[in-house]
Amino acid sequence: MMEDDPINFQQAMKSSNSQKWIEAMNEEYKSMQDNKVWELVPLPVGTKPIGCKWIFKTKRDSNGNVERYKARLVAKGFTQKEGIDFKETFSPVSTKDSFRIIMALVAHYDLELHQMDVKTAFLNGDIDETIYMVQPENFVSEDSKNMVCKLTKSIYGLKQASRQWYFKFHQIIVSYGFEANLMDECVYHKFSGSKYIFLVLYVDDILLATNDISILHDTKRFLSKHFEMKDLGDASFVLGIQIHRDRSRGILGLSQRTYIDKVLQRYGMQNSKPGDTPVAKGDKFSLNQCPKNSLESQEMQKIPYASAVGSLMYAQVCTRPDIAYIVGMLGRYLSNPGMDHWRAAKRVMRYLQRTKEYMLTYRRLDQLELIGYSDSDFAGCQDSRRSTSGYIYLLWWSNFMEVCQTDTRNFIHHGSRVCSML
């Protein structure tokens, strides 16, 4: 039985792994000091410091075994004031579509695929604002108890932290000759004659795919020169996705068995009867199935419907296109779900129980080409009579149409038109 991660400092200290969490906090605090993230100063008159807290998380391998106990100090960004403590906050993030396209290229061209991790990535970002923060719990000495932290670097939890880290990384990687992809700013490429390398940045996780081992090592050395990096070698587990390779046969598979097991356990479905399909034939969903009185609403408030659909959605966008339709359908009722919607969500989980070994598989072929299919239903929404269209390539997509269609040719054309945009 997996022990849940502590939700606060007090719970961590009462945990059976309290010593592990103390060691993790000491490591994080030392990182803050080494990076000169703040300086202790008296709080200026009329200034209110933002808060901070410890976040605890166990990092597990592809088999669910604990690899590391990690403590992270985060600022309470919700206490920041716009225009004073921050201005802009947007930061790009790599899409799962980009990740899957790179995986297809890796399989077809038999590329080297390595993974690196940027330690305390957000601490590398510079901040433009003057921000004061209270001292972290368990690290306040008697001599400095009346002092606060004046931030000199970005820190996790700040509203602008991700944005500042991205700008820092982009500036440095571009200086080494990499170019950002036009459609996904977190995918970079570099060409040198016949040699090439792709770099995918997902917050602090980095994937490197290349046809030449020397350019791989050069890139790793460059990154390690500018950031504190952890070289994880051949990529086998990233973003909760297991990567299985058989290079001799040109096969690469993506699986989320460990993630699915975790989801099933979270919602008490680990011992459920496996299901044959994610949705029953003929099942229809509508607003008529939403709660009709306060008693039904109160019953549904006890059910983690939104959280469960969100968990299913992550599996869907990563490796499970087979549940895209039903997950999209259930997502339409997040604000006011009924018991029928919850039963449908549990059916999806039972289906995943049976199919958790499934892999999204890419194979090396004689010719690399895109083959796409699209289809739509006809006025399938019970509430608005709008249609749902979808397509599948190496990627997949499902979307609720913005208008009603009166002819089947119209909505099939709509799906095909979206496909052509790829």
From TrEMBL:
Coiled coil: none annotated. It comes from the Eukaryota. Pfam families: RVT_2. InterPro entries: DNA/RNA_pol_sf (IPR043502), RVT_2 (IPR013103). Residues 35-280 form the Reverse transcriptase Ty1/copia-type domain. PANTHER family: GAG-POL-RELATED RETROTRANSPOSON, INTEGRASE CATALYTIC DOMAIN-CONTAINING PROTEIN. This is Retrovirus-related Pol polyprotein from transposon TNT 1-94. It comes from Vitis vinifera (Grape). The lineage of its organism: Eukaryota, Viridiplantae, Streptophyta, Embryophyta, Tracheophyta.
